[in-house]
Amino acid sequence: MFEIRPAIPADVPAIFSLIQALAEYEKLADQVTGSIDDLHSHLFGSKPLVHSIVAVIENKPIAFALFFYNYSTFLTKPGIYLEDLFVLPQYRGQGIGKALLTRLAEIAVEQDCGRLEWSVLDWNDMAIGFYKRMGATVLPDWRICRVTGVALTQMAAQQS
User: Is 131 a catalytic site residue?
Assistant: First the structure.
């Protein structure tokens, strides 16, 4: 059996390892440029920027969900954005992903959030099917806009 609990500082190396495994699964390993120290600071520093819950077996994290709060101006309520959810392949099919999503929904309800949302790669049919079975709507008409690296620096330097 597994347990779902909030991440603790000692979990950070395992969470980072899970992030790397997720990146490998998504064929994006080359995009992992962060560090364990940065993740620790963002989860447990003086001003945490993100939160995480983990699924553990014998105190070893085998899955995680990393999330942060956002805000809906239309609902005038906070929301939760699920950045990543990942279960190690050998533990899939045991209800762990469902338990992590269920716990996030509970957190959203406890915090009076208006929504819980996330993105999914369009080729990941297994995940899309799972999310739909959990009650999620996959929005066909929204696209993610992203600015990173040099483009982000250039955008920040623009004058109005």
Answer: yes
